[in-house]
Amino acid sequence: MVVDIWIILLGLAAGGILLLRDWRLTVGLLMLKYVVLAGLLNEQPFVQPDLGQMGLSSLALIKLITGICTTLILAVTALTFSREYGLEDLDEFGQAELRRALRAAARQRSTETFQLIDYILPFGSGVAALVASIVLPIIYPIAPNPALDFAWYWLALSGILSIATASDILKIGLGMLLCISGIDLLYTAVISDPAASGLKIMPLLLLSVVQILLALAIAYLAGLVYGRLKTLAINELYRG
Questions:
Q1: Which of 141-145, 150-154, 208-212 comes out lowest in average pLDDT?
Q2: According to a count of CB atoms within 10 Å of the terminal CB, is the N or C end of the chain lower?
Q3: pLDDT above 50: residue 86
Q4: CB atoms near residue 21 (< 10 Å)
Q5: What number of helices (H) and strands (E) belong to the chain?
Q6: Among residues 85, 117, 79, which one has the least CA distance to residue 101?
Q7: Rounded CA gap, 73 and 216, in Å?
Q8: Is the dihedral of CA 182, 188, 193, 195 positive or negative?
Q9: 3-state secondary structure (DSSP) of residue 234
């Protein structure tokens, strides 16, 4: 497998989403992931640049637009539900929920000395996913070349593990978007095979629409959870 800059950046972006917990970093890495996917696909021989002299393909442009839309949706969601509200804006029920959120924040601060433990499971699972993404293209190749096989395996596995190790609603959404991006990349690679029907824009547009709708669904779910708990942390769902 020839390792180029796009594969390295894709590995860093998906791995960062799996490992990191700060939404400011993970949402930014999500946009980086879409940019890298656009660049990776744009250099494939089965993708023809058809946008004039820019050397850019319609497929790459679709990935960029999808990335901008999903990133903006999740960024606005995170900004909206991380801002602070004054007590004067809340009724007695809102103040009670705010006090509950403050107690949850205090509990989180009290465990900050053990934050390193929180990264052990994502890091270990990320290493296992990386090894699997390297080995599986050798054992069971699907895409036209090993680089694309590694890319879709890595996106799908890191997405699944991001969901499994998520601590908040946004992280679950990021993991789901990684999984769909892996499926999207696999479909693009397989359908472009000469024995297949060939690359068509409409199914890829539908996959992009699904990703945008998923981002909107995550934003809606985040609003429901925040409206009830005044936090997006999953563990608060199980507290009395």
A1: 141-145
A2: C
A3: no
A4: 15
A5: 8, 0
A6: 85
A7: 7
A8: positive
A9: helix
Q: Which residue, chain included where needed, has tokens 């997405």?
A: 159
Tokens of 43: 């250099």
pTM over 0.70: yes
* Pairwise CA distance, residues 159 & 46, whole Å: 26
User: What's the residue count for the chain?
Assistant: 240
Tokens representing 9 are 């950046």
Q: What tokens does 119 get? A: 């990264």
CB neighbour list of residue 38: distance below 8 Å, 6 or more residues apart: 59, 60, 61, 63, 64, 67
Measured CA to CA in angstroms, residue 95 lies from 21, 91, 98, 225, 233 at distances of 27, 6, 5, 17, 19
Handedness of CA 56, 59, 63, 66 (dihedral sign): positive
DSSP-assigned letter for residue 44 = S
Q: Which long-range contacts (CB under 8 A, 24 or more apart) does 54-63 make?
A: 58/201, 59/188, 59/199, 59/201, 59/204, 62/201, 62/204, 62/205, 62/208, 63/34, 63/35, 63/37, 63/38, 63/208
Residue 165, judged by CB atoms within 10 A of its CB (0-12, 13-18, 19+), counts as buried
- Helix then strand then coil, % of the chain, to nearest 5: 80, 0, 20
Tokens of 132: 């699997």
Question: How many Cα atoms within 13 Å fall on the side-chain side of residue 216?
Answer: 8
pLDDT tens sequence across 161-189: 999 998 888 999 999 999 999 999 998 88
Domain boundaries, the chain: 5-238
**Interacting residues of 23 by C-beta distance below 8 A, sequence separation 6+:** 74, 78, 82, 168, 170
